[in-house]
Each structure stands twice: as structure tokens, then as C-alpha cells.
């Protein structure tokens, strides 16, 4: 028998979330960001599921673009992080992949190549990771023109769109808009998932929804269900042991939790070796037999302990939801001191994905 730990993936929920992103994008089109193996959901299955609705995918690396093409899909694919070697230029052109250029050396690779993929120019509007500063754009565009390259558009990335009260996103939007104003005929893309929920935020021609597609909240102050998103992944396992702890009994490494009363306790076959966060710890919610329960003690590599006081009839073999429709991934992330992005992309390869819808 295989281990009972499974990541169930609801492709209907994925499509619902994309359609919500497209609706919230208004006049902009929405390119679906499916990097990091479709945020841990399986890039091939995600791409196939969205193919009827999506005209443009965005990925981080060339291997992800290749996976989309290997599925026989001919949608536009944008390579957000750009090329990592000069040899990638010809590969991108062959695959029909549009390339984001964020540095001089990448632009030179394209100029020097007989194979010319379509280009987007990354603008550093204030995040200060990648991209050309606004003062550099005139020179970049002149070099591209002289080299026979006509970029398709400009994009930038927001640093604080998930913080509704922060003035940074408005400032970045202004910087970007002013920087690209000399080229009004080229496309513009600025909007990550969080930007779709900012009132009055311009998204220009293309938005780039990512985490919201998978049913996790892109905002720090609102959970996904409040935003109308549906959870796509349900991470589930089973109880493999049930016993009653007596007052004074501890459970798990370091004995970080000790019973102060008789406590029904269950062991669940999942741990940080599966990608469940080790730092979740006591009081992190889970769900069994229609009841919310809580973790107790430390998460181990292959198992964790739960307090079954709210579900005293639970037995070995009962299904346990670690996150999904009943326990939002946003809740688990808060208990673990992280974000839903890390949890979804951290589910390891030993956890099989099972698709429905």
C-alpha cells in the first residue's frame, strides 16, 4: 500500500480563480503565471487545465517553457527571469518564447544572435532586484533599435502591493508610467496577484496573476475566501495511531508540549519531509471527521501529532486535511510564520498529486 499522504488538486477551482483574475483585471488581459511547477501543483496539468481560457503563460525558466510546449500548447509564453546563457537565445526563438530582458548582457546576446525572440524590457521602478532604471531606458531602446530589435513592451514588479496602506505601489506605478511614456505604442504589464485587489490600480495591458490562481491570498490582511478564491490544493493524509495521553505526558521531539489533562492524541502520516512546515507547531489547525483539531508539539520529518479532543471518535485510517477547503492555507502559513507561496511550492515530490475536474 502506498503512503496515504496526497495533494489533491481541483482543476475546476483553478479555472474559477483564473476567471476571477481576468474579471478583476478589467480592460487588461491576464497572463497566467505557472512558474515553480505551477506553484507546486504540476505545471503540465495546470497548463492543460487553463489552456482553453489562457492566451499567455508566464514562467521563470526555460525548462518550464519547454514543459508547456511539450504538452503541445501553442499559447504565448513569457520568460520572466530572462535567459541565463547566450545559447538560450536560439532556444527561445525556436520555442516561440517571449523573453524579458533585465540586463545589458542579455540585450547584447539577442543583438548578436541571428535568432531573435520577442523581447520585453524590465523596468526597475523601485523593487531594485532586476531591471533597467528609468534613466537607462532611452539608451537601452536606442541599442535595441540599432541592433534590429523592437521590444514588444515593458514590465515591472511591485514590492508592496500586498500592503493596502503602503504608498509604495502608487509610487512605483507613477515611476513606471513616466519612464515608458516615450514609447506609447508598446505594451505595459505591472500587476501581480495583489494588484488585482487594489482599488483604482491601473493594470495597463497585461496583468500577471500568480498565487491567486492557486487559491491562496496575495494580501496580508485578508484570507482567500474573503477574496472569492477557491483552494486548489488539498493536502491530506490519515491518522496512523490514536492513543490517550495522561497529564504530564509529552509528545514529539524536545517535549515542547505536555498534556495537562487526559488528551486523545492522533499521529498523522505527514511531516516536513513532505513539505509540511516544521515551524507550524502547537495550535496550527487541521481537520478530521468534520471537526477542526489542532497540532501539538513539533512536526517531525514523516509525522505529526494532533489533539483529538474535538473529534474523540477519530480512529486510525480517518482522513486528515492539513490545508484545503476546511483549513485555509493562509491560516497554516500564519501559524508557520510564512506565506502560502512557500507552503504550496514546498510540497515535495514524494507527495503524489491527484487531479480532479
TrEMBL record:
GO terms for molecular function: alanine racemase activity; pyridoxal phosphate binding. One of its GO terms (biological process) is D-alanine biosynthetic process. Pathway: Amino-acid biosynthesis; D-alanine biosynthesis; D-alanine from L-alanine: step 1/1. InterPro entries: Ala_racemase, Ala_racemase/Decarboxylase_C, Ala_racemase_C, Ala_racemase_N, Ala_racemase_pyridoxalP-BS, PLP-binding_barrel. Its cofactor is pyridoxal 5'-phosphate. The active site is at 35 (proton acceptor), 253 (proton acceptor). One of its GO terms (cellular component) is cytosol. Substrate binds at residues 129, 301. It catalyses: L-alanine = D-alanine. Keywords: Isomerase, Pyridoxal phosphate. The modification N6-(pyridoxal phosphate)lysine is found at residue 35. It holds the Pfam family Ala_racemase_C. Residues 232-356 form the Alanine racemase C-terminal domain. PANTHER family: ALANINE RACEMASE (PTHR30511), ALANINE RACEMASE, CATABOLIC-RELATED (PTHR30511:SF0). Catalyzes the interconversion of L-alanine and D-alanine. May also act on other amino acids. Belongs to the alanine racemase family. This is Alanine racemase. It comes from Marinobacter mobilis.
Amino acid at each position: 500500500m502506498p503512503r496515504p499522504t496526497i495533494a489533491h488538486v481541483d482543476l475546476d477551482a483553478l479555472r474559477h480563480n483564473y476567471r476571477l483574475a481576468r474579471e478583476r483585471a478589467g480592460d487588461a488581459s491576464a497572463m497566467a503565471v505557472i512558474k515553480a511547477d505551477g506553484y507546486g501543483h504540476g505545471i503540465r496539468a495546470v497548463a492543460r487545465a487553463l489552456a482553453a481560457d489562457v492566451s499567455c503563460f508566464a514562467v521563470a525558466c526555460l525548462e518550464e517553457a519547454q514543459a508547456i510546449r511539450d504538452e503541445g500548447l501553442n499559447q504565448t509564453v513569457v520568460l520572466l527571469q530572462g535567459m541565463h546563457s547566450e545559447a538560450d537565445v536560439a532556444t527561445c526563438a525556436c520555442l516561440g518564447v517571449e523573453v524579458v530582458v533585465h540586463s545589458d548582457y542579455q540585450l547584447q546576446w539577442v543583438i548578436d544572435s541571428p535568432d531573435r525572440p520577442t523581447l520585453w524590457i524590465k523596468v526597475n521602478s523601485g523593487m531594485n532586484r532586476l531591471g533597467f532604471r528609468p534613466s537607462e531606458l532611452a539608451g537601452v531602446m536606442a541599442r535595441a533599435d540599432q541592433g534590429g530589435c523592437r521590444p514588444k513592451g515593458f514590465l515591472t514588479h511591485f514590492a508592496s502591493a500586498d500592503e493596502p496602506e503602503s504608498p509604495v505601489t502608487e509610487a512605483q506605478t507613477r515611476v513606471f508610467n513616466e519612464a515608458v511614456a516615450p514609447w506609447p505604442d508598446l505594451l505595459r504589464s505591472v500587476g501581480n496577484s495583489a494588484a488585482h485587489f487594489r482599488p483604482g490600480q491601473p493594470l495597463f495591458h497585461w496583468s500577471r496573476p500568480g498565487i491567486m490562481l492557486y487559491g491562496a491570498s496575495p494580501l496580508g490582511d485578508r484570507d482567500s475566501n474573503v477574496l472569492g478564491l477557491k483552494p486548489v490544493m488539498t493536502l491530506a493524509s490519515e491518522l496512523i495511531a490514536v492513543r490517550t495521553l495522561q497529564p504530564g505526558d509529552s509528545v514529539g521531539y524536545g517535549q515542547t508540549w505536555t498534556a495537562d489533562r487526559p488528551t486523545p492524541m492522533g499521529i498523522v502520516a505527514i511531516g516536513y519531509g513532505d513539505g509540511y512546515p516544521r515551524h507550524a507547531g502547537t495550535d496550527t489547525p487541521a481537520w478530521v471527521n468534520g471537526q477542526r483539531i489542532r497540532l501539538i508539539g513539533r512536526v517531525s520529518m514523516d509525522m505529526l501529532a494532533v489533539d483529538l479532543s474535538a473529534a474523540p471518535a477519530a480512529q486510525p485510517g480517518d482522513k486528515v486535511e492539513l490545508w484545503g477547503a476546511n483549513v485555509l492555507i493562509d491560516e497554516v502559513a500564519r501559524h508557520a510564520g510564512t506565506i502560502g507561496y512557500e507552503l504550496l511550492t514546498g510540497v515535495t515530490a514524494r507527495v503524489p498529486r491527484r487531479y480532479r475536474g
